[in-house]
Amino acid sequence: MEKQWEEMTSDERQETLFQRWISAEGVKFASPEAEKLYKERTTRFKNALQLKTEPDRIPVFLIPSFGPAYYAGLTPHDLMYNYEKITPTWKKFYMDFQPDAHSGAFVPSPGKFLEIVDFKLYKWPAHGVSEDTTYQCIEGEYMRADEYDFFNHNVLYFFNNVWPSRVFGALEPLGMLPPLAGVTEMYGVSIPFIPYGTPPVQAALKTLMEAGEEALKWIGAVGAFGPEITAEGFPACQVGVTKAPFDVIGDTLRGTRGVMLDMYRQPDKLLEAMEILTPTFIKLGVDAAKQYGCPLIFMPLHKGADGFLSDEQFKKFYWPSFRNILLALIDEGVVPFIWAEGGYNSRLEIIQDLPKGKTAWLFDQTDMARAKETIGKVACIAGNMPMDMLTVGSTQGAIDYTKRLIDVCGKDGGYIMANGAFFDEVKWDNLRAIVDTIKKYGAYK
Amino acid sequence: MAKDLVTALADLKEEEALKIVKDRLSAGEDSLKILEDARKGMEIVGNRFTSSDYFIPDLVYSGEILKEVTELVKPKLSKAVESKKLGKIVFGTVAGDIHDIGKDIVVFMLDVNGFEVHDLGIDVPVQKFVDKIKETGAPIVGLSGFLALAFDSMKETVEAIKAAGLRDKIKIMIGGGQMSDEIKNYTGADAYGKDAMAGVSLAKKWIGAS
What we know:
The structure holds 2 protein chains of 2 kinds.
Chain A: H1 10-23, H2 32-50, E1 60-61, H3 67-71, H4 76-81, H5 86-97, H6 111-117, E2 122-125, E3 128-129, E4 136-137, H7 148-153, H8 155-167, H9 199-222, H10 225-231, H11 245-252, H12 255-265, H13 267-292, E5 296-301, H14 311-331, E6 335-340, E7 360-363, H15 368-373, E8 380-383, H16 387-391, H17 395-409, E9 415-418, H18 428-441
Parallel strand pairs in A: 1-9, 2-3, 5-6, 6-7, 7-8, 8-9
Antiparallel strand pairs in A: 2-4
Chain B: H1 5-10, H2 14-26, H3 31-50, H4 56-73, E1 87-93, H5 101-112, E2 115-119, H6 126-136, E3 140-144, H7 150-163, E4 171-175, H8 181-187, E5 191-192, H9 196-206
Parallel strand pairs in B: 1-2, 1-3, 3-4, 4-5
Helix pairs in contact in B: 2-4, 3-4, 5-9, 6-7
């Protein structure tokens, strides 16, 4: 009899998730060739990630921001306001460049939805930045310094009511709604409902319904991308997302400046908040892996990069709760695909404290030779194709750099070729040359 | 407890620093002397950042303490503080890019190293750089950017400075996110600074102070 999930070891769980990914049950492939490519590609990733055997060659993974839009001669704005263009645009990009996996087509958010809710956290094309420009986050204190006690005792209420009332202009009245915990007796049962009768709250609730309808329209168009591109032989890779608790707080709750000051002024409360966030962000990753049928989960890292924290601060504030999330994901068979943006040179020794063959670390500007010698001993490493090579460098330069990466990182497997940072408009010949170079020189004998 | 403001600020002892300032003010001490000590403290912070003993959070925190000190002292200031500066620099994050963390650090380091920095902020239009260079006569310009879109904005800014006939009189440095020597060549700037310390060294070299 097959082992139940609860009885499995983390190795067995990971293997089960990988086998589900590789077997692609229910997928109707466009051709036998597409099916063959799909199996080869998923197996290639699995072998690179597990560090048990060399894959047939180095996998190549291209992760765009609005790249496919520029490639098709469209602006980000075009796609954000014409949902039906997203799937064909994204599909053309993958069909033309033939990397070994896709990462969904969720980059173009629905523009009309953002307008309905009056999203304030980011500038987006024609709303703060030009139509042909990508999103940019507006740093702010969306959680005040004196709100830790409240946050730490009401985290769900904070995310359901307080947070939306601050980042969505049209949902501001939600901040007036009380928790319903008091409604456990006959007397006064109607009292917490009184705000729901007021015009501002009713307007906000109507906005929520409209926003929901718009989001449905969008997913109706974008949702086609996954099945269609998989049918062509491209596996979904790291479509789901979760984050390190320090980044959750530092990116968009307290902001960079806020979280840095909290380390000095209220360290215990900051640590407590990160502990409280941990189970939620474990569940996000585990659920996404199941939902998308891919064991790889995307984890973008920001505020732990070189220079952002001292070693002591990294060890005290960043690494413990982040590591707890990694270990919990690993236990569930999920493979965190971690994007260490910026430089991670000063962290390479610390992050080695992980079980072998369970994570992938994508580096942007880190010294890859040192990465291979440190974290590369216990994890698959990835990335490092620099942005300047893609945007202003020569095609020959991109080819030479790719060959260097093959030599330095590819030895004995455990490397995935990828761009170091999300890309928008680049020199397409350079991108093509990188993929071709990997296919030509990246094979293991 | 540290008795002097210089040490308290340099060691990031917020409460101590503020208490010392309050005590000295109520003892009727000249506010300019207090500010001079605060400046010395910040200089030590800058040195510790240069030697990698301090990191970005330490700079942010020291800046916060300095702000509080200045607020305490300000009402008692009889005249504006004048100190001799090494030279003028016009600085900003280029058009289309709204990132400021990196820029603020370089501005901070240039400031504690004695430069008069005219910080134009973020998403700075090309013409604003040109106007400020003309207004201040600054011999150095710093262009900051985090995103790849900044490559072109930097190039356009350098070209506009050239078109305004100012290129020969000034030195231009770039830095931030995805910048490199390759991008420096692309933009036509004079140098790429890998971090804030590199920015300070370049500025000192260019005005002949190093």
